[in-house]
Amino acid sequence: xxxxxEAMKVYxxxxxxxxxxxxxxxxxxxGQFLSVMGPSGSGKSTLLNLLxxxxxxxxxxxxxxxxxxxxxxxxxxxxxxxxxxxxxxQFFNLMPTLTALENVMLPGLxxxxxxxxxxxxxxxxxxxxxxxGRTHHRPDELSGGEMQRVAVAxxxxxxxxxxxxxxxxxxxxxxTGTEVLRMLREATRExxxxxVMVTHDPKAAAVGDRIVRLADGRIVGDERLQEQAx
Length: 230
Prior knowledge:
Rossmann fold; six-stranded mixed beta sheet; 10 strands; alpha/beta; four-stranded antiparallel beta sheet; 7 helices
């Protein structure tokens, strides 16, 4: 599903060259829940940006679902993000003037999909994440955990192949964070979804099938966890 070979990403700050990724090689099979950990500056955010088709490596290969992202043009990358990827962020990124239902529908509306079908699917997804009775509430009427559930439903709307989660529990209390992780875990099992989650929280990371650790732009650890309980 994800195949990265010797990916290098270099940024220039004036005359200084910063190697955010220094030749990362990583394979993530379909349906795996991968947790990525590492200190600040280790390359986690850069890796997530590359996987999210928000940037491309300076050298090396990065393929998702058999497609080489580094060879795509900007419009192709935009289409790939829209059609194949889902995103969950630490701070939810919901539109404050829209209801939960409208927030879930928004990516599909921007992509020009039929409104009636989007509404039906969004209602099903909100029911799935336990918010069937909150569809017409705006973000300021929802708890942090409820907003993150809306974000998860939104990420699943387009039936992505890969879901990328950036500190999805970082703004939640431990109990609510556990519930959100459970939903991501279930999505991996039930939908055959591949999840890559960046986190600083060892307990959150342990929910995955595997933990990869980064330092100074390199992989310094790759731990496969025991099979998760059903």
